[in-house]
Specification:
The protein has 7 helices and 16 strands. The protein is of the alpha/beta class. The protein folds into 2 domains: 142 residues, Metallo-beta-lactamase, Chain A, CATH 3.60.15.10; 77 residues, Ribonuclease Z/Hydroxyacylglutathione hydrolase-like (Metallo-beta-lactamase, Chain A). The chain is globular and about 55 Å long.
Amino acid sequence: MRFRFFALVAAACLVLVNAANAQGKIQLQWFAQSAFKLTMPGGKVAMIDPWITGNPKCPPEWKDLDKFGKVDVIFVTHGHGDHLGDSIALAKKNEAPVWAPAGMDQFLIALGVLPASLAPRFGKGGTIEPVPGLKVTAVHAEHSSEMILKDPATGKETSYPAGEPVGFIFQFDNGFTIYDMGDTALFGDMKFYGERYKPDLLLIPIGGHFVMNPSDAAFATREWIKPKMVLPMHYGTSSVLKGTPAEFKTALGQTSIKVLDDWQPGQVKEF
């Protein structure tokens, strides 16, 4: 009888914990540029475009990849070094799959950089559920995608095709949606993505030169996507990425959209 009582109590506690997780907070930690650590309500951890060790704006205390603890899954929008970053090292360290454009993962497998088990393939329009409580859809980004890796035959740094660049729509069971645009220029379907997915949080590049400048990014945010909150990213890590959050906020003008321009590299925010 006593055993049954404790079993019922344990079962009730498990239900309460699961319910709390389902309604829990999403934690997002930004490391400058487009690098993020995403901790989900159930405790699973994802890294997004994890350019960490070579990132000049990433706080020094986070340059040690062991500081991130257990990483369950990695997302990469395209093959450029400031996005692919430390993905391969993190994947091997944690046995964590790298979800990236299909053409990119295909080359990582063919070159022997990652085994097929750590380089699953999907493409634009595809939706996956890599961990419980999270659905991820790959969407269009207007950019390029190459990666620099050592040629296994010559040992020299060589440029390889890395599929087509993507953005990611992250949809959580608690109803929260993040649209990570990756690197992109303006394109008209941003309006469709805003209407279709209604993102709560938009992660948008503003640096210019390789991506949208603050004016174009503000236009896309205000006129097309219309999120509840926006983080301007991908600026200030090189001399050509001149756009600033202040310029973005000025271009955005009067709006109900909350600009997270106080978000500093290394800082965690909860949603």
